[in-house]
Amino acid sequence: MPQPTKGPRLGGGPAHERLLLANLATALFTHKRITTTETKAKRLRPLAERLITFAKRGDLHARRRVMTVIRDKSAVHELFTEIAPLVAEREGGYTRITKTGYRKGDNAPMAVIELVLEPVNPKPKSAKKSAAAAAASAPAAEPEASEPEASEPEETNTEAMDTEATGTEQADAEGTGDAQESADETSEAEGAAAEGDDTK
């Protein structure tokens, strides 16, 4: 049974309420739609949808579970063989309640509860959802494209390091060239001084 609801129960006691809902479910599965009070329709909906879920399972255990609620074998047979295949693709919402106004005698709000047996038509994806899906897939592709961009600065850095290294090598070469020139100049000066000493 579904979760108990707050407020006064239907009928005189809990057993009476169970039998009343079982009879309503039997009538619903037999005739596909019934007219009853709005309160009874709202109380019947969770029970009927649970029984349809059992019927969609279709095994012997599910059939015995349904038989504990509905005692009419012809109604159970119709539920398992006719109704369950029609709602096999539907994932819930097997019943529909439509308010029909008020009863003439006691002004009770009335409603029609019926089975939703139409084939399921999935809604087409809107342009916004498809654009959102494309936007969601785009960031996943962006990091792959951004990785080469991240590697390019490394190449420029290596090029800069190469140019710096060649600059230092040139500077070292210039430094060694200056040192050789200064050494040559000192050797020439020493030679000139030695010639001056020889002339004396």
From TrEMBL:
Cellular-component GO terms for this entry: cytosolic large ribosomal subunit
PROSITE patterns per UniProt: RIBOSOMAL_L17
Region (Disordered): 123-200
Pfam family, one: Ribosomal_L17
GO molecular function, a single term: structural constituent of ribosome
Low complexity bias locations: 129-143
Biological-process GO terms, alphabetical: translation
Keywords carried by this UniProt record: Ribonucleoprotein, Ribosomal protein
Gene3D superfamilies assigned to the protein according to its UniProt record, in alphabetical order: Ribosomal protein L17
Compositional bias of kind Acidic residues: 144-157
Similarity comment text for this entry: Belongs to the bacterial ribosomal protein bL17 family.
Quaternary state and interactors: Part of the 50S ribosomal subunit. Contacts protein L32.
PANTHER family: LARGE RIBOSOMAL SUBUNIT PROTEIN BL17M (PTHR14413:SF16), RIBOSOMAL PROTEIN L17 (PTHR14413)
Protein name per its UniProtKB record: Large ribosomal subunit protein bL17
Originating species: Microcella pacifica
Origin organism lineage: Bacteria, Bacillati, Actinomycetota, Actinomycetes, Micrococcales
